[in-house]
Design a protein that fits this description.
Blueprint (H helix, E strand, L loop, with lengths): L3 E4 L21 H13 L4 E4 L5 E4 L2 E11 L11 E13 L3 H12 L14 E11 L5 E13 L40
Parallel strand pairs: 2-4
Antiparallel strand pairs: 1-3, 4-5, 5-7, 6-7
């Protein structure tokens, strides 16, 4: 059984709601991650990115939202990847009495999921599901809020190459570096074991 719901995010003059651009957004790492999450959650129910526009939708529905992005200062950023901590929320809409089952399926899908993006995305942490609201109207529905955090590397590690580690250590008494000063380098005395 499917129900159509008119969901008003904000009451006000609908003429003031900006029109969505016709051209798609560029594929940044965050947009790619959102698209990957949306694709995988679509296997459970219709999934869409949340916007602040009013919408009519069919139940069940998952609305995905990126709530916040912070630099992941507690993570080791020594490899140049520019890691960001992303805070996500998925809203599970379903008929009253069925939304908690949808929320449980979402939590199971989110747990340990890197969304096909490999090591650039960490496994989710702080996964939490709570009943958000119940709408008792013409067609009652229930909403559960599922939130989690994942870190996302915006670029590749500077250490991901196929090169060989150096076998000789070169040193100079002055800070003259580069190919032009290579003849001035000396091999330090390293005791052999």
């Amino acid at each position: 059984m499917r129900s159509a719901i008119l969901d008003f995010c904000y009451w006000g003059d609908l003429a003031l709601v900006p029109k969505q651009p016709d051209n798609p957004q560029p594929k940044t790492p965050i947009n790619s991650l959102l698209a990957a999450i949306q694709t995988e959650l679509s296997d459970i129910a219709t999934a869409q990115l949340a916007s602040h526009q009013c919408a009519i939708f069919d139940l069940p529905l998952i609305r995905l939202k990126l709530d916040q992005v912070k630099p992941a200062s507690d993570l080791d950023d020594w490899d140049g990847r520019q890691v960001m901590q992303c805070y996500f929320t998925a809203y599970a809409y379903h008929m009253v009495g069925y939304a908690e089952d949808l929320a449980i399926r979402l939590v199971s899908a989110i747990k340990f999921n890197q969304w096909g993006m490999g090591e650039s995305v960490s496994t989710p942490i702080s996964i939490e599901a709570n009943q958000n609201s119940v709408a008792w109207g013409y067609k009652p529905y229930e909403v559960w809020r599922i939130s989690w955090q994942q870190s996302l590397a915006l670029s590749q590690s500077i250490w991901n190459d196929d090169g060989e580690p150096p076998t000789t250590v070169l040193a100079s008494h002055e800070p003259k570096t580069g190919k032009a000063h290579e003849p001035e380098y000396e091999t330090p005395l390293i005791p052999k074991n």
